[in-house]
Amino acid sequence: MNIRIRFGKEGMMRYIGHLDVLRTFQKIFRRAGIPMQYSKGYSPHPIMSFALPLGLGLSSEGEYLDAAVEDGAEPAAMLAALKEATAEELPVYALRVLPEKTENAMAAVGGAIYRVDLPAEMPVKSAETALKAILDRESIILPKKTKTREIELDIRPMIFWANLCDGAVTMALAAGSRANLPPEMLLDLFAKESGVSSEQLKWQIRRMDLLDHEGRSLGSLGEETGWES
Amino acid sequence: MRKQALSDEILMRVEKPARYVGGELNAVMKDKDKVSIRFAMCFPDVYEIGMSYLGIQILYDLFNRREDTWCERVYSPWPDLDTILRDKKIPLFALESQDPLKDFDFLGFTLQYEMGYTNILQVLDLAGIPLLSERRGEEDPVVIGGGPCSYNPEPLADFFDLFYMGEGEVSYNRLLDLYKANKAAGGSRKDFLKKAAGVPGIYVPCLYEASYHEDGTLAAFRPLCDEAPEKIKRVIVKDLNDTVYPEKLIVPYVRSFQDRVTLEVMRGCIRGCRFCQAGMVYRPLRERDADWLKAQAEKMLRASGYDEITLSSLSTSDYTGLPVLTDYLIGECRDQHINISLPSLRIDAFSLDVMSKVQDIRKSSLTFAPEAGTQRMRDVINKGITEEDIFRGAAEAFHGGWNKVKLYFMLGLPTETDEDAKGIPDLCERLSELYFAEIPKEQRNGRVQISASSSFFVPKPFTPFQWASMLPREEYLRRAYLVKDTMRAQKNNKSLHYEYHDAEVTLLEGILARGDRKVGKAILRAYELGCMFDAWSEKCRYDLWLQAFAETGIDPDFYTLRERGEDELFPWDHIDIGVTKAFLRREWNRAMAGVVTPNCREACSGCGAASYGCGICRQPRNVQEVKA
């Protein structure tokens, strides 16, 4: 059966790259005593995949990992075992059994919500003005480097919404394989508009959740199966 | 949340920030206000190498079992971070608490190889701890060293407050108790060092004085006070089934060199190869019960989540419980997708059978370590394998499906002639011919590949070759080319491959390995000149080392090119490892005569390790007639 877990990256875990996090989760599942399903073939490996890699240095409370485990285990028991087996800075929050034929997490991602705490000394007014100036534009053309060349990209459609609240900017941006807007790109723009340093903002980025193509949390797959947490 | 010693900007700038952040699975966090001893344990090399070493995990576990002690880890910052720490004046810190090393009570170094010595100074320097023991004050940590290189501690004597001779399980608790009691009683650093000299296995270098003859050799080595014993005897665990062993290994996030559970099946070695320091300084052979190991393996795999386990020892084939243990592991691990790796196996029918069960033959290569190309040379070094053994093993391997063979050799061994050197390509050629003779064309799975590599021999203290002379630099290269060119002239040269190791590092290692106290000044100078990470051959600056020797009046040839006299007093003679100098000298004489000595299971040769009264020494065996 396939399960999805929601986890976070805190503190210095932010400096562990996503391949290392994947290898770590293989170990955490073993420590938790949850039998994995393995790929067939020459060198079998546990079937496990992330929804969307998180950039180095970013913290998160909304990461998702799908894994194929042997049938039969109780979700609540698995969650308790994972919480016990993981490291403090890699908290596991929730687990659910996926309905059959669920699209895999990676393909399902359409967006991501980020929160950026603004510097305490920054006037609320100037933050509001800067954010409004960005959101009021019909298109925002930025250069983007691809592997082979530089192209022009309109990022405005990739900004779903943004709020200023509680001394922080919270924003929903396109993410995933179809369209992907790194939060740093928007922050650079915001920094330019408001006059704060983008370096200062960069360390404050926290991923709050991932969204599917309909804008729902990757954790909600229909009413009937709530999160076991 | 945990404190962070480095800013986000710095962590984003350095290669592999995971090296510096700690927080791994099973890393131990404690409240620093609730412990009375803080111990920082250092492997003076980069994180991925240091984390692969079992010894630190054993001590980490041992110390952290004490409620009054918090043991943390530290490794050498890679040059990118090294530069940043110096520029920004950030003191080096331990991984767990991220607190500066200067706040600790102890800073321990494991001394695994000589070429890591300048990295010890790097760590001290970055921590803001005076490099010289005599300059340290009451507030500085006690700097202690242990591990194989500490058996000749003299080149490092100026930098260390204490050395620990032997296995950590024995005396560390006593040492820590002593430290705590001394602190509680208001005793000074010097008081503690003097008291520590009374703990079995502890050597306090500042309590001794060396004097030299005019020719530079050691004249006398004397204790300066009553507390310091004449001889410091290595301490060992008598019963390995009666020790603590880490059940919860720290699991690094980044891939380390040994990314697996390591199960230490025994200590010591019966073989008595005359070049091998480990084979002498870890005597006698002591085995762990297979049942004890089975239980341990299960706990360690479960607590770490590793998907691979390896057996560790100097010569795993000599472990008597091997068939039982491997049977068990193969049965347990298959269903759980856990791999087994078995290094240090002698190539015979049993090990080939086991290997074919645990690894993919098509992908793996077989490793032999004949060490020398001719039987004459193998007898001199007492390798204990014959040409028949090698050919029988290889034939069985070829029939078992292997067609890649790796062979390890040494060049520059005592008494070695050009014929011995040319024996290396000759052996490789005949092994490739054996493949063609044994395996019919239709069964061959690609070309047979024989790759030989040679390192240059470095004489080590406490080996029968401790008297031996090394060779001039050009001579090493000449011999390597003799092998290389002869290899190329072989009929099957397309199947043969040869690589040799660096001669410069060999000579430096030779100086440091058998150095005396005077050499310490050169190490310090080399560090000041910029030497660091010398074990990484691309980073080793031979020219700077030569400059350091010249500036400190050290003549490298005195340490490398001189055959020591029978009666010469060695800088390490005040250390008693159990094996006696008289035995080593007998072995030297037998080597010169080309006579082999039986291994400890065949017969006891009276090496002196029986003074420990444990392990193989207590099993009834023949006694070898003691003759030079």
Q: Give the N-to-C terminal Cα separation of chain A.
A: 18 Å
Helix content of chain A: 25-40%
Main β-sheet description of chain B: 6 strands, mixed
What is the approximate shape of chain B?
globular
Which structural class is indicated by helix and strand composition of chain B? alpha/beta
CATH superfamily of the largest domain in chain A: Pseudouridine synthase I, catalytic domain, N-terminal subdomain
Low-confidence stretches of chain B: none
N-end to C-end Cα span of chain B: 66 Å
Percent strand of chain A: 25-35%
- How are strands sequenced across the largest beta sheet of chain B? 2-1-3-4-5-6
Order of helices and strands of chain A, N to C?
A: EHEEHEHEHEEEEHHE
CATH domain class name of the largest domain in chain A: Alpha Beta
Verbal overview:
The complex is a heterodimer of chains A (229) and B (628). Chain A is an alpha+beta fold and 229 residues long. Chain A has helices at 18-31, 75-85, 105-108, 124-136, 183-194, 198-202; strands spanning 2-9, 48-50, 59-68, 92-97, 109-117, 141-145, 150-154, 159-165, 168-174, 205-212. In chain A, strands 1, 2, 3, 4, 5, 8, 9 and 10 form an eight-stranded mixed sheet that branches. Chain A is elongated, with a radius of gyration of 19 Å. Among the domains of chain B are: 8-233, no CATH class; 362-518 and 554-564, Transcription Regulator spoIIAA, CATH 3.30.750.200. In chain B, strand 16, helix 14 and strand 17 form a beta-alpha-beta unit. In chain B, helix 13 (387-399) runs parallel beside helix 14 (418-438). Chain B is globular and about 75 Å long. The chains are: A alpha+beta (229), B alpha/beta (628). The A-B interface holds A 10-13, 15-17, 20-21, 23-24, 26-31, 33, 36, 38, 44, 46, 56-57, 85-89, 199, 203 and B 1-2, 4, 8-9, 11-12, 17-18, 21-25, 29, 251, 253-255, 301-307, 337.
